[in-house]
């Protein structure tokens, strides 16, 4: 995807590990995406009330509110339910298909920068 096309897209990056969040945000912003950051699901829901977001990249295991509960809250909120979510997890998932109704894609950490950006590109093209 061309960088100029990415510039119109805002990605919410939700990750409790500040270093990982910074790396994900930098990789996506360097590729052209606009970035909003949150440290957990509760923080993400708050940020969604402040910033229009086109896609969400989220860790699954976080304190305060994890990615699964955040995804459920988003899907239960009419004006947010359309936003595609990409899950990032350090725990290999045996049956990824179980999570597909809530998530457009799943990535196992560590993932490469190319894999992250490529997945976001693919989901943007498919859903937006």
From TrEMBL:
PANTHER family: RESPONSE REGULATORY DOMAIN-CONTAINING PROTEIN, STRESS RESPONSE REGULATOR PROTEIN 1
Alphabetized UniProt keyword annotations: Phosphoprotein
Modified residues (4-aspartylphosphate): 59
Coiled-coil positions: none
Residue ranges occupied by any Response regulatory domain in the UniProt entry: 10-124
Keyword Phosphoprotein: yes
Example of a GO biological process term: phosphorelay signal transduction system
Species annotation: Herbaspirillum robiniae
Protein name: Response regulator
């Amino acid at each position: 995807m061309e960088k100029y096309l990415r510039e119109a897209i805002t990605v919410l990056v939700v990750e409790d590990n500040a270093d990982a969040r910074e790396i994900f945000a930098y990789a996506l912003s360097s590729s052209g995406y606009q970035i909003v950051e949150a440290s957990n699901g509760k923080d993400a829901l708050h940020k969604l009330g402040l910033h229009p977001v086109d896609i969400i990249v989220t860790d699954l295991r976080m304190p305060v509110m994890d990615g699964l509960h955040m995804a459920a809250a988003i899907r239960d909120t009419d004006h947010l339910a359309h936003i595609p979510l990409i899950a990032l997890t350090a725990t290999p998932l045996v049956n990824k298909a179980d999570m597909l109704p809530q998530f457009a894609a799943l990535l196992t950490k560590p993932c490469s920068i190319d894999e992250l950006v490529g997945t976001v590109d693919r989901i943007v093209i498919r859903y937006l």
